Amino acid sequence: MIIQIKKIAAILMIVACILSTAVSAIPVPVVRGVNGEKVSLPDFDRSTVTVIRADGMRFPFKAEVATRDKDRTYGLMFVHSMPDDRCMIFPYASPMPVAFWMKNTLIPLDMLFVRPDGVIGQIKAEAGQIKAEARPQDETFIYSQGPVSAVIEINGGLAKKYGLSRGDKVESPAIKVR
Q1: Domains contained in the chain, CATH given
Q2: Cβ contacts of residue 109 below 8 Å, gap of 6+?
Q3: Comparing C-alpha atoms, which of 106, 109, 176 is closest to residue 142?
C-alpha cells in the first residue's frame, strides 16, 4: 500500500512538471508598434462609465483607467480595435486644462471632455463634426476648453451614433465630481 502511494506521488510529480513546462511554453500575445517593434501594454485599472443624455438615455461602458502618468502617456496607442462597449478614462485628481494627440493611435476616437461637475463640456470627434479632430496618427494637439476632471475616449463615430452632446452627464467611480 505504501509502495502504491509512493508510485502515485511520483506520477503526480511527473505530471506537475510536464504541465508547468507546457504552460510556460504557451506564447504570450505580443503587441506590435507602428514599425513592427514589440510594445509592452500597461496594466490599466478597470472601472465603468455611463454617459447619460439629456433625455435620460444611458450608455454604459467598461473602462480602462489611465491613472498613472505613464498610463496617460500610453493611452490607447497601438490598439488595433476596441469593442463599442469599451472606453478609456483619463481622470485627474484636480481639474486642469489638458491637451491630447493621436500619435501612434491606430483607431479613430471621440474624446469627451468632462468638466469638474461631471458634465460633458466638449466633444472632439473623429467624424460627424464640422471638422474631424481626433484622427489616427495625427500629432496635432487637441486642447480642452478649460479645466476638466477627466477625458473619456470612445470609438470614433459613437458620439454621433448615440446622439451625445455637450451638457450630457457622466457617472463613473473613476471620476471625481465637484
Answers
A1: 37-171 (2.60.120.1140)
A2: 76, 102, 126, 134, 153, 154, 155, 156
A3: 109
Interval 147-159: pLDDT, tens: 999 999 999 999 9
Q: Which helix (H) or strand (E) holds 46?
A: strand 45-52
CA 165 to chain centre: 21
What values do phi and psi take at 71, rounded to 5?
-70, -40
CA distance 124 to 156: 10
Contact of 91 with 150, CB cutoff 8 Å: yes
Give strand pairing partners of 150.
91, 114
* Report field, pTM of the whole predicted structure over 0.85: no
Max Cα–Cα distance, the chain, nearest Å: 82
